[in-house]
UniProtKB/TrEMBL annotation:
GO cellular component: basolateral plasma membrane; endoplasmic reticulum; Golgi apparatus
Domain Vitellogenin: 9-162
One Pfam short name: Vitellogenin_N
GO biological process, alphabetically ordered: lipoprotein metabolic process
Species assigned in the record: Onchocerca flexuosa
Protein name as annotated: Vitellogenin domain-containing protein
Length: 216
């Protein structure tokens, strides 16, 4: 932990005057730290001025290691930073389908609508970068041919039972290429309070955008 701890200690003295430099140094140190180093640092610096920037760096690092430690630490030991961690993770430039899949599983299992929205938003943002990473992926995502993205969309659409959830759904889908094209139709889908009608409308939209039919 020597290098990471040293950077955090020095950053506490320089923050906030050199915030951008501090963030870059922390991200770099996180890449070379062990899981235990990261967890120890969260515990030691939790109540220091540098902690919010450290949380940003953990999310922005975007590795499986930083994600796993961040998820575990900010759901148990320092939950006050969970929202910030998810917001930072949503901005990472790393593309890791393992992280995206875990976010989807986490989203479905968490019993908290507030954080479910943030997890879904993060997953959608990472899906957008995933879809834009290659020409082939972009084509698949924009034409409804990526089953992972389709499954994510279906879950988000059909889980809603109230207007607040429907509003959140529209905000989440603004990050996905396919859905941006049909945002008006999705608004109509989400205006329905009948789950069966929502599912039927979703598959009709899917048929229109992809050229194939799937039974609701």
């Amino acid at each position: 932990m020597a290098n990471l701890k040293l950077v955090l200690q020095e950053s506490n003295n320089e923050f906030p005057d050199k915030k951008a430099d501090v963030l870059a140094s922390l991200v770099n140190s996180i890449l070379f730290a062990t899981d235990q180093d990261l967890l120890d640092a969260v515990r030691e610096f939790r109540n220091t001025p540098i902690m919010p920037v450290f949380v940003d760096a953990i999310g922005l690092a975007g590795t499986k290691k930083s994600y796993t430690v961040g998820k575990n630490a900010f759901t148990t030991e320092a939950p006050e930073f969970l929202e910030r961690f998810l917001q930072a993770l949503a901005q990472t430039t790393k593309i890791d389908i393992v992280i995206i899949n875990d976010l989807k599983a986490w989203m479905k299992s968490i019993n908290d609508e507030y954080y479910e929205k943030y997890i879904a938003f993060t997953a959608a943002n990472l899906y957008r970068r995933y879809c834009e990473s290659t020409r082939n992926r972009k084509y698949e995502c924009e034409n409804g041919k990526n089953e992972d993205v389709n499954e994510f969309m279906e879950y988000i659409i059909t889980r809603c039972k109230d207007s607040n959830c429907q509003i959140n759904t529209m905000q989440i889908f603004e990050n996905l290429p396919l859905l941006r094209k049909f945002i008006g139709k999705l608004q109509s889908i989400n205006c329905s309070t009948n789950i069966t009608e929502q599912r039927t409308s979703y598959f009709e939209l899917k048929r229109e955008t992809t050229g194939y039919w799937m039974n609701p």
